[in-house]
Specification:
By secondary structure, this protein is α/β, with parallel strands linked by helices. It has 27 helices and 15 strands. The strands form 4 sheets. It has a 6-stranded parallel β-sheet with strand order 3-2-4-5-1-6. The protein has a 5-stranded parallel β-sheet with strand order 10-11-9-12-13.
């Protein structure tokens, strides 16, 4: 990859001129932190430098750019001297609940809990397995037993290597164990063993560059912290989104001789920079604003769907719904490869639900005789992915296999051949796109009472980080989701929205955003519709007049679109509410906003227009929408 030569900014110059032996670079999205590390390496051609990062793509990118005195490794490849021993014995691989169940003849639920315990330990900087590594689903009275089991399995995992002189068991015993055990050593397992050796990297290197520090678990962070050579760590604590693999916290400033914050982004304009600043200041008390290096670069809060764009969601379930909506309409690409999305598991869950156990392929899912057992397992282990798959399988019913087959058939493998790129926020990290649509399945940051959500747990803080990552993927336009709209509406009322964001917000509300299908009308991702112009909004989760949002409409917009539309159907069927005004009063929103939602549902085929044939406000919207669709 060719690096664009730029004159360093003042912030970057401070970092480049630093002589601190332990330097922390806090670099916001798109500020060129890897380029900064590259420049630092070029400044020191006589030093032996180790570049470390978690992601393989980052490592490959660095290896193609950095000077020859730099060795570029992932953290796992740094530990491969140990990891290769398990590979050589054909025992390196994924460790699953089913493997533990079979290896030790234990219940599947306990096997899942035991695996979580081991994962928590392997990712920690602790030397021994302790009670704090146990999942909360294990009762306190069972802690001692669970710890003993964890210690036993960890010891057995260490035996998944060929016998060597000095082993604490005879060769015949080890050989028999290797021949019969289904156990596998996971990547984080051999990484943990490497960390436990307390490696001294300063014996081979004068300087360590740790990129994307927020992606590393405490075990790796502890190794880097203990090095005696010079260390530069670069990253963005607000892009810390991998808590599910142990990466919850960023390095502490107190562990460094100097901390430099890089705030000027080359990726996006002032509007997106203002949005990022607004989120971080409001919910994280971050004093430093995010700045744009492109003051003239405009951003609209709408997307031109005639040009390539990205769809970023929080969950795979929402991505599936959007992929279904795109079938036969626009060519789609799943970032990271469609096989890395759990659509095959979704089909398996459908087979379980339909009593077709013989068609289930996934090893874990195959161990259940039906949906009831799977639901009980998901409840006992708090498995959110399975809960989500069950929900989607129930929603789409017998159509699931056909829809998955169609999605796979229509999705293209090469991104440049697609009109629409779909991905989760986790997969979007490190990427950028000309336009971005954010889906409505992120964490609500404004409560039902209109207050700001207190982010008082690591999990909630990472939910905020996911939204920050998603919105900073765009180089241009950004279609806001319900969560961002609610935040903006809340802060507009408090007078705490910056001028760039406020201007873009008003322009969108007044219909001055980017046209996406002509005639001021755009089909929505969920199959509904939106109307641009003046005070007219676009249905639940879309754009409305700023003044309306400050009142009850903010809470209405913050709700999930599918939830709102289902509730409207029930209100019509069970209580006979057949006017926009009556429904608006029932849902606590404006009549105009309710009219937008109803028109969207009619155009999507979800409601019959006959129900509202006497409503002029609905008729007007249907005329606009029909003309737009025909254009």
């Amino acid at each position: 990859m060719t690096r664009i030569k730029r004159t360093p900014t003042l912030e970057q110059a401070v970092a480049l001129n630093s002589t601190a032996s332990k330097l922390l670079l806090r670099a916001r999205a798109g500020t060129g932190k890897t380029t900064l590390l590259e420049l630092k390496a070029e400044q020191n051609p006589g030093l032996r430098i180790l570049y470390l990062t978690f992601g393989q793509e980052n490592q490959k990118n660095a290896a193609s750019r950095f000077p020859s005195n730099v060795v570029c490794k992932t953290t796992h490849s740094a530990a491969w001297e140990i990891g290769g021993q398990f590979k050589k014995a054909c025992k390196q691989g994924d460790l699953t609940p089913n493997i533990l169940k079979d290896a030790y003849d234990i219940p599947l639920v306990f096997a899942r809990q035991l695996l979580t315990t081991l994962e928590n330990y392997m990712r920690s900087d602790d030397v021994t397995l302790q009670a704090r590594h146990l999942p909360p689903t294990i009762p306190h009275t069972e802690h001692a037993k669970a710890i003993s089991w964890g210690q036993l399995v960890w010891k057995d995992l260490g035996r998944l290597r060929f016998w060597r002189p000095g082993c604490d068991e005879p060769k015949a015993v080890r050989d028999e164990f290797l021949a019969n055990t289904p156990l596998r050593m996971p990547h984080d397992g051999y990484l943990k063993l490497w960390c436990l050796t307390n490696p001294d990297l300063s014996l081979g290197f004068d300087l360590i560059l740790l990129d994307e520090y927020q992606d590393n678990n405490p075990a790796v962070a502890g190794v880097v912290k203990r090095q005696s050579c010079n260390v530069i760590q670069a990253g963005d604590q607000y892009q810390g989104i991998f808590g599910f693999r142990g990466a919850w916290e960023a390095p502490s400033a107190g562990d460094f001789d100097q901390v430099v914050t890089i705030t000027e982004s080359y990726r996006f304009g002032p509007v997106v920079a203002g949005l990022a600043t607004m989120l971080l200041k409001t919910f994280c008390n971050e004093p430093e604003p995010v700045r744009s290096m492109h003051p003239a670069l405009g951003t609209h809060f709408s997307v031109d769907r005639t040009k390539p764009y990205a769809i970023i969601g929080r969950t795979n379930a929402k991505l599936f719904a959007n992929a279904v909506a795109l079938l036969g309409k626009q060519r789609m690409h799943f970032v990271g490869g469609i096989d890395n999305y759990p659509f095959d598991k979704l089909v398996d869950v459908h087979h379980l639900m339909a009593g077709q156990h013989g068609q289930v392929r996934d090893t874990l899912l195959k161990s259940f005789s039906g949906l009831a057992g799977l639901e009980a397992y998901a409840n006992d282990t708090d498995d959110k992915e399975i809960h989500s798959l069950i929900g989607v399988a129930k929603q789409y019913g017998d159509q699931v296999p056909h829809l998955v087959e169609r999605i796979k058939a229509e999705a293209v493998d090469i991104q440049d051949q697609a009109q629409v790129m779909l991905m989760t926020a986790h997969r979007s990290k490190g990427l950028e796109f000309p336009q971005v649509i954010l889906l409505d399945d992120f964490q609500d940051l404004i409560t039902d009472s209109g207050a700001q959500l207190l982010l008082d747990t690591p999990q909630l803080r990472q939910e905020l980080h996911l939204l920050y990552v998603g919105l900073t993927r765009t180089r241009g336009n950004l279609e806001l989701n319900a969560q961002l709209k609610a935040v903006i509406a809340h802060l507009v009322g408090l007078g705490e929205v910056g001028p760039d964001v406020l201007e873009a917000w008003k322009a969108t509300s007044q219909g001055r955003g980017v046209g996406t299908s002509g005639a001021g009308f755009t089909p929505s991702i969920g199959g509904g519709a939106s109307f641009a112009g003046g005070e007219v909004g676009t249905g639940a989760g879309h754009d409305v007049n700023v003044a309306q949002l400050v009142t009850g409409d903010a809470a209405y917009l913050a709700r999930d679109v599918e939830e709102v539309e289902s509730a409207i159907e029930l209100a019509i069927l069970r209580r006979g509410l057949l006017s926009p005004a009556a429904l608006a009063e029932d849902f606590g929103c404006s009549t105009l906003l309710m009219a937008d939602t109803l028109a969207s549902m009619i155009l999507a085929g979800r409601l019959s227009s006959v129900l509202f044939q006497d409503s002029s406000v609905i008729r007007d919207r249907l005329v606009i929408g029909s003309h737009a669709l025909a254009a």
